[in-house]
Every structure is written in C-alpha cells, then in structure tokens.
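During the reporting period the student researcher (J.K.) took over the structure-prediction task from the postdoctoral fellow and processed the backlog of single-chain submissions. One of the processed entries is reproduced below for the supervisory committee.
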Amino acid sequence: MPRRAARRKYLLVAGDINIDLMARIPKFTGVGGDNLAPALVLQCGGVGLNTAMALARWQALVRLLGATGKDWFGDYTITRAGRRGVDVSCVQRTSAALTGLFLVIVSRGEQRTFFGSRGANSRFGWRPDNRRWLQGASWVHLVGYCFLSPSAARAARALIGEARRRRLPVSLDAGIGPARLARRAILRAARRVDILFVSQEEATALTGRRNPRAALRALEQTGAGRVVVKLGRAGCLYRENGRLRRAPAFAVRCVDTTGCGDAFTAAFLAGVKRGWPLEEAALAANAAGAVAATVVGAGENLPGRREALRLLKARRLKGEWETVRRRLVKRLQ
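J.K. obtained the following structure tokens:
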C-alpha cells in the first residue's frame, strides 16, 4: 500500500457484500401464488456494502472488508462501490462460492420478504498478514452478520482484537438475523465495542425485554461503551451523561425500509467520527434513515449529507430539538 494511502484516516467497514434483486408487488400472495412485479431492479446490497456506500456519501474515507465470488456479481458490486468512493482494495475474492444474492420482495405496507444466500460472505477470513487492513485506519465498524459463519466470525474477532491493540474505536451493528441466530456471539462482541447499534426488534432478541429503555439498560450491562437503539418512526434512543434521550424522527412517505438502518448507522458514525455532539449525530442519523425510506432499495440509493440536509431544512421540531436541528443545519450547509 502506498505510504500516502497508509496515512489516510479510513473508517473500516467489515460486513456482507450482496446483490439485491428488488421486486415491488401489490400484495405478496405467499407460497404457490403468482407474485408478479412490474419490474425487477438490480442493486448493490448487504449491510457492509450499504453502510460503506452511505458513509462515502457523507464524505467519509471508508475501506470495505468482506468477500465476493469471482463472478459477474462480485465484479459489479466492487466496481459500483469503487465508483462511489469506497476503497475496495481489501475485498476478498473466492471461487469457492458465488457472491451473496438476494431477492427482496417489497409489498404493500412496505413489508419486505427476503430469499437468497449469503454465499461468499460466509468465507470472509483472517490471516496474520491481514493486519495491513488497519493501516491508516481510525475506526473499525463491524456488522453482526460476520458472526453467522465460523470463518467470518474469526475474522471479526481478530479485527476487534487488533483494533483494541491499536486503541482504535470499534462499533457493531447487530442485525436481526445475528441477534436471533448468533445471540451469544453478539453479546460477547458487545463487551468490546465502543458503540453498539440495535433496532428495537434486535434489542428484544438479545435481551428478552420488549421495552426499549429496559433493553438498552440490559445491553449497557454487557459492557458496551454506548448503546444506540433505532426506533424507526419513533426516532432513536441513547444515553448521554447518564440521561436517556430520545431523538425525534422525521415523518416521510415510506415506500421501502430496506437499508434504512444502514443509512442511520452511517450518518451516526460520520457525525461521531467528526466530533459532533451526540444529539446532532442522532438527529442526522434519524434524517438519513427517514430519507432512505422514501426510495426503493439500498446500495447506491442510500442518502448522504445533501439529502439529509434537505429534509432537516424542511422539517421543524419541538422544544430543545428545534435548537439542535438549526445547529445541525448550519453545520451541514
């Protein structure tokens, strides 16, 4: 790696890299029925790739870690991410599996149904020479799907260990699949991260508590430095200086929730990494998640600074959050 590149302060994102085939249908009739879509849309997907591309839209230097097959789909995802400003030089390629591929059915009520395989994502691995991945890094972010296969889980644990050795901050976005299927691994990893992102559903799966405030407190007791609970239309919940705070959401016309959580995480990380107050990072994240809900699919469609700013300018808030909104608008302009 060139010396100049090694000095750059990258945010590393380790996670799934997929192709999503999106289909919007009026009503999902289930198994055995005809589910016809007016059109199929091919897009980049996967939590790792989505988050990396969204971070690039927030003008962050981001390096993507993960695995694809040596196939057309892998070529497509790597090319598209590279054109969006993501460093893809460390993405692994394998001939032992196809690139992750999912059919995403979006039906009435913005409900999503997924069919597919993680494919090459399960073969993401770690070797001692992979420490070069962290050259020039200032942050390491992982997604919970890394813990769904032995090889990727070893790589995730090694990344966390190496980041800790170098005193780099670490964040983890749990994901609903891992929260259910790899609960113990996620909770063990949570002990070693500075920020743990969970949706309300994920928080319940990890703790057994349905109340988001109770779930947040339970997750804090695992040792995670900070817990951020994504509440969708209700905003997000986090603790600051011992006080639980709920940043408000933004009302939009929702057409598809695919990637909303990834857009939220990217915006929050972009703000925290730049030293913004937590309330501003949380509000920017809510705005990004809201804008993401107004478009079909994720990948290249996920919003960045400009789209979030447009929404922040157009919506007024109540009480103390209106002051935060104005301050954030001024910062982003």
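The committee noted the following: DSSP finds twelve helices and 14 strands in the chain.
J.K. will present the remaining backlog at the next meeting.
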